């Protein structure tokens, strides 16, 4: 029971780590380049999730000033959410860049499978 | 007024990147001279800041004057100014080279874009070094990784796209691991500012050791991936070999070093030597570095493309720096930073002189270097100086760093690593000497045995010669640089 309670108390952290591992697995094992980019996105989301979970306070209110002047409320920590806004922008730009690179790879190699690309590369030396 | 200078640096670099597309493409010389002027201004500001912090002391720049608990902060201390000074000196010389080396695979239309990327690259490196905030470092690191990948994929070759894609994937795993480490540290300390986290860790270390151990694991792996420390080096040779010559030099000499400097900051400003020793991390780092030194050299021997060989040689040289960091002593860290400088200079000369060979001879195979010393004596002479520096022969800066590293290892009680140093010196000789012998002692296909001048623009040769003179100069008189480095190392909790 102790263990179950521990797990339930930290379910948000465990969920974030699980997502991170799923994302890493996708990046490392799939040979399809688009699926790899998806894996990176899942990893990023996991960390954002983790950050937000860190900032959460049980039964806390959103960090907005109450117009009624009620100052007894416990707020959740707004700083992680602010950091994560930046983080989301960063991951989106990385995704856009790598997707555009995949477009170029498809144009030149005619495939988006890592194994096939490696097979094509094997026969060629670099030339200027 | 002086407090504003670091932000002026950052803004100048960013604004220049924004302004470049507005200029006419026909008259590209105007853009180039403007870029050069900006680089020169930023360089002089960096020199002035270096002088200022070494005489008057370090200072902070707080954006909007928020408390560092919630706001961003730049820390201008002897360490950050020294590294930025090095970055700017190298990039200034490489910029001069790049203005003439037009043939290296970049399309005429894309010169402007190339320089935009170069300025954003510089901006993000300055940001990474100046900032005193872990999350802010992450954001700058992402800017840096996007721009480095774009600078690799700017050549319209299929190999470049594949290399850039591999680079962006591994880099991204690295950045996200680093960010995960930051999240774990934020969880137990409640700050992202490096100094505040460092203070908190001393107390939190007793109560929440698990978080801290996992966080350092993630951060070491993440930064190791980005800095190409040995088992994570697989992206480096492809990426650095396929990039244009001038950007290979920037990537190998400067960009990788910036990540290593972040690594140093994390270890000795955030964690501090007590926690590291308790976790036995320094000795593990040293072992990884030693394996990297030997394996990188072994891989380098097997290459027939000279730029790939230089890439693997970088992996080996990063191993030296990692050994220096892993010694976790005052001397070890100063040697590591000294080697950052000396390797930066030597690798720049090697890549640029190979770039000159590619410019004149249109070839990059090691077998085609026969007798090339008669045709291009200046470039190959510079190559010779840098190569003997890599091997560690006296009168070069490479000798000074290897010698001091050996002494530091003995003082730190890890004399075993001297064997690694000697072995790697021999391995370096195995792959650098044949090129020199072929270049100066074999016959060339044209059967020319009289020295002739290099058929390369003077602006390409000048930076190569200047940096080779630096290598010899620092090899003869290392004390001036050493004093600056000692000032920088004093800012760490070693």
Could you characterize what this model shows?
Chain A has helices at 2-9, 11-29, 33-55, 79-109, 114-122. Chain A is mainly α and 128 residues long. The radius of gyration of chain A is 22 Å and the shape is elongated. Chain B has 494 residues and is mostly helical. Chain B has 20 helices and 2 strands. Chain B has helices at 5-19, 28-56, 78-100, 111-130, 134-153, 158-189, 194-207, 209-227, 236-242, 245-271, 273-279, 281-301, 306-326, 330-361, 372-375, 377-391, 397-411, 416-441, 458-476, 479-489; strands spanning 59-62, 73-76. A two-stranded antiparallel ribbon of chain B has the order 1-2. In chain B, helix 4 (111-130) packs antiparallel against helix 5 (134-153). The longest helix of chain B is centred in the middle third of the chain and has 32 residues, at 158-189. Classes of the chains: A mainly alpha (128), B mainly alpha (494).
Produce the secondary structure layout.
The complex is a heterodimer of chains A (about 130) and B (about 500).
Chain A: H1 2-9, H2 11-29, H3 33-55, H4 79-109, H5 114-122
Chain B: H1 5-19, H2 28-56, E1 59-62, E2 73-76, H3 78-100, H4 111-130, H5 134-153, H6 158-189, H7 194-207, H8 209-227, H9 236-242, H10 245-271, H11 273-279, H12 281-301, H13 306-326, H14 330-361, H15 372-375, H16 377-391, H17 397-411, H18 416-441, H19 458-476, H20 479-489
Helix pairs in contact in B: 1-2, 1-4, 2-3, 3-4, 3-10, 3-14, 3-19, 3-20, 4-5, 4-10, 5-6, 5-10, 6-7, 6-8, 6-9, 7-10, 8-10, 9-10, 9-13, 10-13, 10-14, 12-13, 12-18, 13-14, 13-18, 14-16, 14-17, 14-19, 14-20, 16-18, 16-19, 17-18, 17-19
């Amino acid at each position: 029971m102790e263990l179950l309670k521990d797990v339930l108390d930290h379910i948000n952290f465990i969920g974030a780590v699980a997502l991170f591992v799923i994302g890493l697995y996708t990046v490392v094992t799939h040979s399809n380049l688009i699926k790899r980019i998806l894996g990176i996105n899942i990893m990023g989301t996991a960390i954002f999730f983790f950050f937000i979970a860190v900032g959460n306070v049980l039964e806390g209110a959103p960090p907005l000033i109450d117009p009624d002047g009620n100052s007894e409320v416990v707020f959740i920590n707004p700083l992680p959410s602010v950091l994560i806004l930046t983080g989301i922008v960063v991951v989106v730009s990385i995704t856009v860049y790598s997707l555009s690179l995949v477009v170029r790879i498809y144009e030149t190699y005619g495939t988006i499978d890592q194994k096939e690309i490696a097979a094509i590369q094997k026969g060629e030396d670099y030339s200027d | 007024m002086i407090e504003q200078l670091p932000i002026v640096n950052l803004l100048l670099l960013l604004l220049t990147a924004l302004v470049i597309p507005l200029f006419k493409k026909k008259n590209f010389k105007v853009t180039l001279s403007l870029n050069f002027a900006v680089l020169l201004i930023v360089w002089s500001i960096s020199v002035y800041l270096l002088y200022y912090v070494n005489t008057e002391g370090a200072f902070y720049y707080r954006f909007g004057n928020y408390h560092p608990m919630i706001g961003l902060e730049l820390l201008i201390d002897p360490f950050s100014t020294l590294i930025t000074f090095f970055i700017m000196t190298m990039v200034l010389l490489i910029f001069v080279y790049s203005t003439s080396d037009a043939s290296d695979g970049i399309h005429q239309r894309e010169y402007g874009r190339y320089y935009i990327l170069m300025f954003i690259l510089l901006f993000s490196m300055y940001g990474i070094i100046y900032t005193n905030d872990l999350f802010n470092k992450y954001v700058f690191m992402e800017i840096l990784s996007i721009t480095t990948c774009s600078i690799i994929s700017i050549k319209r070759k299929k190999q470049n796209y594949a290399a850039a894609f591999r680079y962006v994937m591994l880099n991204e795993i690295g950045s996200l691991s680093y960010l995960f480490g930051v999240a774990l540290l934020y969880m137990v300390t409640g700050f992202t500012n490096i100094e505040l986290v460092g203070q908190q860790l001393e107390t939190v270390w007793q109560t929440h050791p698990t978080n801290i151990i996992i966080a350092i694991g993630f951060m070491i792996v993440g930064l190791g991936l980005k800095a190409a420390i040995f088992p994570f080096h697989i992206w480096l040779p492809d990426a650095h070999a396929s990039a244009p010559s001038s950007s290979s030099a920037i990537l190998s000499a400067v960009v990788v070093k910036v990540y290593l400097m972040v690594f140093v900051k994390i270890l000795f400003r955030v964690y501090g030597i007590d926690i590291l020793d308790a976790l036995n991390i320094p000795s593990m780092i040293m072992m990884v570095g030693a394996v990297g030194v030997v394996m990188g050299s072994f891989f380098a021997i097997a290459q027939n493309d000279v730029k790939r060989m230089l890439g693997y040689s970088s992996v080996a040289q990063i191993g030296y720096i990692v050994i220096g960091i892993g010694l976790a002593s005052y001397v070890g860290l100063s040697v590591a930073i000294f080697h950052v400088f000396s390797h930066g200079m030597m690798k720049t000369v090697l890549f640029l002189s190979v770039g000159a060979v590619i410019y004149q001879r249109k070839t990059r195979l090691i077998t085609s270097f026969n007798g090339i010393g008669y045709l291009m004596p200046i470039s190959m002479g510079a190559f010779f100086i840098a190569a003997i520096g890599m091997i560690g022969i006296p009168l070069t800066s490479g000798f000074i760093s290897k010698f001091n590293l050996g002494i530091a290892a003995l003082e730190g009680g890890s004399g075993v690593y001297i064997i690694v140093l000697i072995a790697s010196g021999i391995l370096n000789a195995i792959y650098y000497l044949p090129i020199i012998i072929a270049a100066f002692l074999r016959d060339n296909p044209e059967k020319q045995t009289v020295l002739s001048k290099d058929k390369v623009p003077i602006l390409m040769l000048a930076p190569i010669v200047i940096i080779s003179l630096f290598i010899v100069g620092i090899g003869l008189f290392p004390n001036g640089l050493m004093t600056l480095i000692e000032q920088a190392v004093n800012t760490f909790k070693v």
